[in-house]
Amino acid sequence: FIHLRSCNKLKIRAYVNFALIKYWGKKDEGLKLPYQTSLSFTVDKLYTETEVIYDKNLYQDIVIINGKKDEKMGNRVAKHMDVIRREYNINSYAHIISENFVPTGAGLASSASAFAALAYAATKTYGLELSKTELSRLARIGSGSASRSIYGDFVIWNHGDDKTSVSKPLDAKWDDFRVIVCMIDENEKECSSSDAMKKSVMNEELYSNWVLESQKDLSEMLQAIENKDIEHVGVIAEKNAEHMHALIEATGTKYKTEKTLEVISKVKALREKGIKAFYTMDAGPNVKIITIESEVAEIKKNLLNIQMIVCKAGFDAHEV
Ligand code: 2P0
């Protein structure tokens, strides 16, 4: 029996990750098991910090995000806390205080960093020392991509069953690699990625093609990262993101806006000029430019009107 050490007050920071090979589609909604293996880059500039304070006097979790009660996210967090309580025999509700360190209103708050920080904070505060593999699994049940935010740098999240579908760090050190987040839209996305994923999975023909192609992209990507070949990495990441968005659009959702298309065409124009800039996109309008350090100044000079965050490799989730 593990005693509740409720005086423990600690804060966990987990970083946002961006997928170069996307996760798109679940074979198990509850356990958040993906159909395919994905690969991502955890960044240094965007993160979430979370505290979990168990309190025997509570009769429900109290969730405060960025200083406010957020009902929608609060319910999701409480649901994940229920999973954690059940798995680790914790019998107390908690105050969950979470802050997203992302530029305000940039539409970049991420469920990946949030659920990674939550899984870690909720267990460590209780005195449990979970392995990173266990944390990755637990984070995954909160939000699929959160399984990757347990680790910094390049990360691979395997498809598999509840036990095997966890992330692992890639053994690749590439100091010059950069992801530049271009902030386009601050509005909440209209269609949650969960709902959009479901629609994609329902189209069996397009979806099975996506799974097949994305896994080919993955093996090429692994080789390209090992070779530190930015052009190859960029081309594959772009192709993979484009394929995902084609699938999303074919099944009735659209995340790209006018501004998105404008930035994409600017990135392509940069490439015509010999600048090594490639893009990826997730379930929203913001574009991320994939590049290396030596190209950053030139990219900034050519995209003056766009607010950018230049990111290097981030770190494993840790206590602060
Ligand atoms: C990814 N995305 O690999 C992909 C690419 C968005 C596009 O993971 O339902 O918030 O919580 O498992 O992890 C966003 O989906 O979805 C995501 P859930 P999640 O980064």
From TrEMBL:
What SUPFAM superfamilies does the record point to?
Answer: GHMP Kinase, C-terminal domain, Ribosomal protein S5 domain 2-like
Q: Name one GO molecular function term.
A: kinase activity
This protein's GO cellular component annotations are: cytosol
Recite the UniProt keywords alphabetically. Answer: ATP-binding, Kinase, Lipid biosynthesis, Lipid metabolism, Lyase, Nucleotide-binding, Transferase
Domain Diphosphomevalonate decarboxylase-like N-terminal spans what residues? 14-164
- Gene3D superfamilies per UniProt: 3.30.230.10, GHMP kinase, C-terminal domain (3.30.70.890)
Domain Mvd1 C-terminal per the UniProt entry, residue ranges: 179-304
Q: Which GO terms describe its biological process?
A: isopentenyl diphosphate biosynthetic process, mevalonate pathway
- Enzyme Commission number: 4.1.1.33
Task: Fetch the InterPro entries from UniProt.
Answer: GHMP_kinase_C_sf, Mev_decarb, Mev_diP_decarb, MVD-like_N, Mvd1_C, Ribosomal_Su5_D2-typ_SF, Ribsml_uS5_D2-typ_fold_subgr
PANTHER family attached here?
DIPHOSPHOMEVALONATE DECARBOXYLASE
Name the family the entry cites.
Belongs to the diphosphomevalonate decarboxylase family.
**Under which name does UniProt file this protein?**
diphosphomevalonate decarboxylase
Taxonomic lineage from the root: Bacteria, Bacillati, Mycoplasmatota, Mollicutes, Acholeplasmatales
